[in-house]
Write a structure and sequence with these properties.
The protein is an alpha/beta fold. Helix content is 20%, strand content 33%.
């Protein structure tokens, strides 16, 4: 790979004039911003920015740099091991080999889930609105919860999942995306909310309809019903659930006893 367009072969955009030749002092600016933010937050950070470049700069217009946001990069160093026995324990709500996150949570009793008997893809915008109302109530009560739904959370395609914004599910400490046999959608694995999931240490479970382990819908149906809407049920267990996620293997499990 070389800079310029003189050689043969496919063209690859590398932004070499800016990143390698440093036609504008962007590299040092980014390094300085990262250093300042890391010192202030006492943590590694990720930043977002935008820059406006003049097309030919004949008028010698100044470049415009916009610093959009900064977030701490929170990394769990907890050593968690999900054993074979735990993963196959009969007293589990969910088990998955595809989980984003790491750590142990044992303080959640509330579960908000889409009722599989009433779920319909044509109503996903209404589902998102119903979830937002429940989310606000649980935030006010300071009750973190497990959120279970079908398809991709945060998708822009309402047929492929639930088109929620992060603010509509921000109280969820554990998010589960599952596929149904008659409704197939490729799992997002948290990509739509990756920065929020990692920054707030949310565990994100993905569960395909073809996986060996299934969601224990019968157990959910027997829990105390706190509120029910057309598509959503909010239930509460009689004791906190145990959530274990091993970030090294991507394996996670949720126990109810």
């Amino acid at each position: 790979v070389w800079m310029g367009q003189g050689g043969k072969g496919p063209r690859i955009i590398t932004f070499a004039p800016i990143l390698v030749m440093e036609e504008i002092p962007l590299n040092n600016l980014i390094k300085d911003l990262l250093s300042i933010c890391e010192n202030e937050l006492n943590s590694p950070v990720e930043i977002e920015f935008a820059i406006t470049l003049s097309k030919d700069n004949k008028a010698e217009l100044p470049y415009r740099f916009g610093f959009l946001q900064v977030r701490p990069m929170v990394v769990s160093t907890e050593d968690v091991n999900v054993s074979h026995e735990e993963f196959n324990n009969a007293s589990k709500l969910i088990a998955s080999e595809s989980v984003l996150g790491n750590g142990v949570i044992h303080s959640i009793m509330d579960i908000v889930y889409l009722d599989p008997a009433n779920f319909e893809t044509k109503s996903t915008f209404q589902i998102a609105e119903e979830i937002a109302v429940l989310n606000r109530k649980l935030l006010i009560e300071n009750r973190p919860y497990i959120l279970i739904g079908f398809g991709r959370w945060g998708t822009s395609d309402p047929v492929a999942g639930i088109p929620v914004q992060w603010g509509q599910i921000s109280g969820a400490k554990v998010i589960v995306e599952a596929s149904m046999e008659n409704v197939y959608a490729e799992m997002s694995q948290g990509s739509h909310f990756f920065h929020n999931v990692t920054s707030f240490k949310v565990c994100y479970f993905s569960l395909s309809s073809t996986d060996t382990h299934k969601i224990d819908w019968n157990w959910l149906a027997n829990q105390e019903l706190i509120e029910e809407t057309r598509f959503i049920k909010h239930v509460r267990a009689n004791k906190p659930l145990m959530i274990k996620v091993d970030g090294r293997t991507g394996r996670g499990v949720i126990f109810y006893s």
